[in-house]
Each structure stands twice: as structure tokens, then as C-alpha cells.
Amino acid sequence: MTVAITRDEAVAAIGTILRGEMNHPHLDRFGPGARLNEDLYLDSVQVLQLVLSLEMNLGLSIPEEAIAGRDLSTVGDLAGLLAREPAAAPAPPAAAPEGVHGDLAYDLKIHCFVSCVCDGLKARGIDHRPFYALIWDAEFAITDEFRLAYHSDAMDHEAFRYWFTRLYGVPLHAWYDHSRPKDENVATLLDLLARREPDECVMVMLDMFHLPERENKFNQNPFPHYLLVSLTDDPDTWQVRDPDFRWEGTIARDRMLNAIRQPSVAGGYRFDPSRARPPAQADLAAFFEACFVLDSNPLIDAVRAIVAAHDEGRGGLTLAGLDGALRELPVITIRKWAYEHGFAFFWRALHWPDAEFQRICDEIEALVNGLTALHYAVLKLARTEDAAQVADIMAKLDALDAIEASLKRRLGAAYRAWQAASSPRDPTPGLRTRGVPAAALHHLIEEDPCEEGCLS
Questions:
Q1: Where are any strands of DSSP class E within 153-209?
Q2: What are the tens digits of pLDDT across the range 188-212?
Q3: Of 103, 158, 227, 233, which has the most beta carbons under 10 Å away?
Q4: Are 210 and 250 in contact, with CB atoms under 8 Å apart?
Q5: Cα distance between residue 133 and residue 442, in whole Å
Q6: Which residues, 6+ apart, have CB-to-CB distance to 18 below 8 Å?
Q7: β-sheet bridge partners, residue 269
Q8: Which tens digits make up the pLDDT trace of 368-380?
């Protein structure tokens, strides 16, 4: 039997769970209008854990899809979900009348390294979207304990560095020397900042967990993060630009140095975006050939392997451990939005119809929301330790695998069409794509004969 509660009862229940079961320390602003992230400092995982506790403690039945597809920004939004109020109609997107062919009305903030280096490109009117092809399958790690990790000491950004320089002509100089002690690297940073040229950018990795005054929507500890820094007229204050979190302002020098000195982080680059130029066609083609992974979906494969390892009890693992093992899944899930920039680049270059692009964007959203719903199902499995739920989770993974594989097939088809259209000599004139009829386009991207994973 499904329990019905009112909105006021739902708000009270949310407060009870946060104070009691979750022992949450940031409740000074609690109320229906309190923002879950900015005011209460709840990250996406904690919100899902809160919803799960409410569902199980109150006997509610909340579909996973409703959680993934609904805006849960405030306590009131969550109370409305619990009280089964209809979701508010989404605001119309702030898009140009021309859709994908108009001015870029939004930007993706899903990878701090890429956001930092692309910041100068956008300021100079250079299309940065192709570079996002590195992100949707960007590197992550599975630890020896079968935990998913978006960052590890073994990772570097050499592929990002190489391709950024090759595509845009801007060398990324690594000033951080991993063979030297932290204090020596900090001294190098201070020297760089003192000698920084007006157009030069200095990028540094720090642990955002130690800057609690900044919004941290993932509430990770540690939280390695790149941003741009420079000096101000006040020797005790630094100017900070965080392109990924869309913030710019000043932070005390000592607080910044404390976050930089943390043992959890190490890295930094300097570069001059004024040297940037648009990519050459041949370099773009080589880039796409090198970075597209069209024959597998690494994130879904990793989640499947982690769930299976816990289900089988490998090395003493238990289903209850899935909560921590997949805690960083949301940090990696948001990278899938990068598909929008990839498709947008090809659609604009080929002048393909906006309507088809918008349908693909709907599928990208379905993939991201599906991964969020999957994460909720995993948290429920970890809480209940009901092995009967594993089969349903594996089925959800198979469905998400199919969605992403379909996106990649169409991406590969768009790439081949772009390659044919941009070739100086066209060996197959019948395949030209500019102005291609909508029906033919639909056939091309839905029924492409090339085997999955084929680029050319």
C-alpha cells in the first residue's frame, strides 16, 4: 500500500532525516525554499541517499525515473516529489531561433582541465567544442577494491596537452615537477605568478574540499580541481577564475596555498591563449580518429564489473559496499553531456537539420538521467542487500549500453559525412551532405551500414 503525505509533512520528514539519520551539520537555512546544494551543502549522492531514506522510512514508492528527470533544487522541490505533486513545466531552453546553427546559447562545464584551457578560446571566438570529444569517455579508474574513481595518482593529462597544442597551437607548459617536494613546487608557482605576462594563464590543481566558501556540488573529500590564479594589488589576496564552476573572485592567499599544499593534489600548467588559432582540418580528422571510442562504453562496462564483483562477493566484497564503490559515479556521469558539443560541431559544419539534432539531445539527456536513476537503484541495493535486485540493475545497464551505442553509431556516421564533405576531392559525389533531404539524413544516421566502431 502506497502512503500519501502532504507537502508540509514531506518538509518535516526531510528535516527529521537530515537531523537524525544523516546527522547533517548544515541546517541553519533549512526550510521549503532552502537550496539543497548551495544552502544545505548536500551533494547529488547525499540527495539520493536522503530520498532513499524517505522512501523506505515512510513507505513511499518513488520511481527512479521520476528522481532522475525532475529538478530537485530546493527542499520544496523534493517535498513536491514526495507529495506526488505534478512536476513544474520546464522552462523553454535559451536557444537561438536557429537552434544548433545559431549562437551558442550555453556552454558545458563538466571537466575542470578542459574548461580552464578552453576559456581563452571562447574569449577569442575560436570554436572549442571539438575538444570536448575527449571528455565523454575520459579516463577514470577502478581501484583494487573495485571502487570507481574519477581521479587517481596514475592519471595525467598528456593526451589533453598534446591535442590542445596540436589543434589550437597553444603549448601547455607543465610547471609542476612531480619529482620535487611540494614546497619547491609552491615556490615555483609563486615565482610564476610574480612574473606572469598579461596574457598568460597560470593553472593550478588544488583540493576544493579545503575551500568550503566555494560551492562544491559533489562534496568530495578530497576534490582535486583545476582553476586559474593571478595576483592582485593586495599581497594577501589572489584573483581566482574557475571556468568550470562559472565563478571569478578573490580568495585569501593563505587559504589558496593551504588547498594547493594538500597531499591529495599535484599539478599545474601555464599557457598563453593569445597564441590560439582555429584547428586545421587534417589535425581535427586525426584527433577524432584517435579519441573516438565507438566500439565500447567504458563507464557502463566499469559499473557492470563493479556490481558483479560485489554481487559475487569477490575478495570479501558485499552488496552493502556498492554505496561507497559507486559514490563518484555522478562526477563521471556529467561527462556524457559532452556528446552535445560533439554532435553540434558536425551538425553546424554539415548544415544538417536542427530537428534531428534536438532529438539526439533528448537521447543524451535520457542517457544522463538513466545513469542517475541507475545510481539510485544501486543505493537501494546497497541499503537492502537484496540480491534479487541485481538482475534489474544489470538490465538497466544493458538498456543504457544500447542508448550510448546508438549515439556513438550516429556520431561515427556524422564524422564520416563531415570527412567526406570537407575532403578536397570527393570520390563519391552522391554522398555529399550539405542540404541533404531530411528523409535521407534520417536514413544515414539511423541505418548506417558501417559496423559499430568503424570510423572510415
A1: 173-174, 201-207
A2: 999 999 999 999 999 999 998 888 6
A3: 227
A4: no
A5: 23
A6: 24, 27, 30, 40, 50
A7: 174, 203
A8: 999 999 999 999 9
- CA max distance for the chain: 70
Which residues have a Cβ under 8 Å from the Cβ of 363 and sit 6 or more positions away?
Answer: 403, 406, 407
Long-range contacts of 63-71 (CB under 8 A, 24+ apart): 64/373, 64/374, 64/376, 64/377, 65/369, 65/373, 67/372, 67/373, 67/376, 68/369, 68/370, 68/372, 68/373, 68/376, 69/369
**62: nearest Cα among 13, 18, 114, 15:** 13
Q: How far apart are CA 126 and CA 122, in angstroms?
A: 6
Q: Which three cell numbers stand for residue 389?
A: 535486485
Contact 374, 302 (CB under 8 A): no
**DSSP assignment string, 91-141:** PPP---TTGGGS---------HHHHHHHHHHHHTT---GGGGGGTTT---E
CA–CA distance, 308 with 17 (Å, rounded to integer): 31
Q: For 259-288, what is each residue's pLDDT tens digit?
A: 999 998 999 999 999 999 999 999 999 999
Q: Which residues contact 419 (CB under 8 A, 6 or more apart)?
A: 285, 456
Distance CA 343, CA 415 (A): 9
Contact 83, 198 (CB under 8 A): no
Which region holds residue 241: left if phi is over 0, alpha if psi is between -120 and 50, else beta? beta
Q: What is the pLDDT of residue 219?
A: 58
Tell which residue, 383, 247, 397, 243, has the closest CA to residue 308.
397
| Secondary-structure breakdown of the chain: helix, strand, coil percentages, each rounded to the nearest 5 | 50, 10, 40
In the numeric block, which cell numbers belong to residue 441?
A: 539524413
Q: Which class for 3: exposed (0-12), middle (13-18), buried (19 or more C-beta within 10 A)?
A: exposed
Nearest partner of 167 among 212, 139, 133, 123, judged by Cα: 133
Contact 102, 95 (CB under 8 A): yes
Query: Cα–Cα distance between 339 and 337 in angstroms, integer?
Result: 5
Grid cell for residue 80: 513536491
**Bridge-based pairing state of the strands 247-252 and 268-271:** unpaired
- When pLDDT is averaged across residues 135-141 and rounded to a whole number, the result is 93
pLDDT-based confidence at 68, cuts 50/70/90?
confident
Between CA 270 and CA 284 the distance in angstroms is 24
In whole angstroms, give the CA distance from residue 141 to residue 160: 17
